[in-house]
């Protein structure tokens, strides 16, 4: 929008004023005329249909009737006063009742006159009744006015707004005023050839019809136009940023594959790479040869072998004379990457160092020296890696794990660690549906590892209700007898921390009685215990000294125990789908068959049932993410809250995937033909793009 009149503060619209403006700002964040115009109705009510009284059924959401008032009466005492009236058409009689605003209603209802009545039907003593209906005196003019608003908009409001007469009807009045004054100021923001190609209605008509549609077809056209616009400009912003980066930042060229890579691949790699891993390596290899800075997102389920791909990409950088680093969001995850990579490369092959908040000053000093003189080639750590005092001699590749936990600012700091920004590989084990990835990470190229390494058996997932508890205990004993280990995980939800801790402790008590010492040994880990104690308990489990680990979700990331083959998730209905999937990925690390058991109470919400059924049905993280997106909407998928990208008012990433792909393709074609948006027909896009907040552009990062 951002056309001049629409930036006018809301208090200047006729009928608003300061008091109403304040409450609109607080309750709905409506500060300008543009905000009000974009406060779209969440549904429309069909005002074209009129019912006869005999055809009214109670289960209808609302009805509209034309009937004549035959009687009205004030009944009851002071506090129980009500106005009761009867209306009649040629098919029967209906009762109307009002408990509030009685004075005004009685003054405006005249016996003998006909009215257009609208409201929710009910019944009283077996007769049709309507409480607090809207009413208009029947006349040709009223019928015409009603005919003009065939589909009446319904707007979200709040109790506070209703005190200022800003219920749905009050908001509707303001929007009518706004459109009467300013519909002519709504300017087009798409080139004519795009409007024609995608058969879009013009912008002004779209805004008028999304609020007050002439008919259902016009409403559908208006919604389609506004969805297209939202998704189109989102992709324009992302791809323009990507283009700016490609133009602005040259990348180091890794033109050779040398001894480090070859030695590792041929002599040290303990298993055959999957086709997926080979494909991703090839994509990274091509990126690093083009002379353009790489920014690639690597998606893959827990255990799909992302770390090996990252390591081999780093070895290519090292073969070309560069240093590399891996940045993880937590110490436990950084430590795990460090151990995994140390195990893969061995002691005498290449030096690998770990830098976290708990690294001793003496060690830290040595790491700093080795980084500056170029001796240290692989550094793994937390955000300690981006502190100003950490200086690299020649940083060529950065791997960022679980990107959504790092802001753009933190990434930017890493870019400044070298004259030519390093290549960036972002890894995530949170599978993100393709459409959401294209939106969240639309400025990155995307690679997916979608197969598990050979020899890995899919995890079997079973859902049990509370009454099967003894069966589950029996199964745990069988697995422990085979020498396996078991996780038992309880939810940890901030609001009910005390309750969660009680559940964990009660559960721990039951398990201790069922699995007594000395035959069985248990570890217990939860958020409130000291870090050193937590580490001690984790290590006991990792070394196999305890067979059962009872924990809250602190184990969600970071613990890799190949011998643990059973994951029991208590109160599984209280976990989100992606969390359940992440937890399940903690087992299945070895060659043995692994199991995930979901325990739940008997009564489940429909959503809870879908979540647990989805887990039983599939191990595919991407299918799970698609279901999660449909159940929860994009705003709740991990990492999207702070992205600021998903400010979509009409478009929905779960249901508008085909339209998103269409918009993306269209924007790609535009940039391929006119990267600067310099052609006359693209000036309109340039203007709209500049007017919309273009967000964080890459030149601010350099």
TrEMBL record:
PROSITE patterns: HELICASE_ATP_BIND_1 (PS51192), HELICASE_CTER (PS51194). Residues 468-630 form the Helicase C-terminal domain. It catalyses: Couples ATP hydrolysis with the unwinding of duplex DNA by translocating in the 3'-5' direction; ATP + H2O = ADP + phosphate + H(+). CDD domains: DEXHc_RecG (cd17992), RecG_wedge_OBF (cd04488). Its EC number is 5.6.2.4. GO terms for molecular function: helicase activity. Keywords: ATP-binding, DNA damage, DNA recombination, DNA repair, DNA-binding, Helicase, Hydrolase, Isomerase, Nucleotide-binding. It is an enzyme of class 5 (isomerase). Residues 287-449 form the Helicase ATP-binding domain. It holds the Pfam family RecG_wedge. Plays a critical role in recombination and DNA repair. Helps process Holliday junction intermediates to mature products by catalyzing branch migration. Has replication fork regression activity, unwinds stalled or blocked replication forks to make a HJ that can be resolved. Has a DNA unwinding activity characteristic of a DNA helicase with 3'-5' polarity. Belongs to the helicase family. RecG subfamily. This is ATP-dependent DNA helicase RecG. The gene is recG.
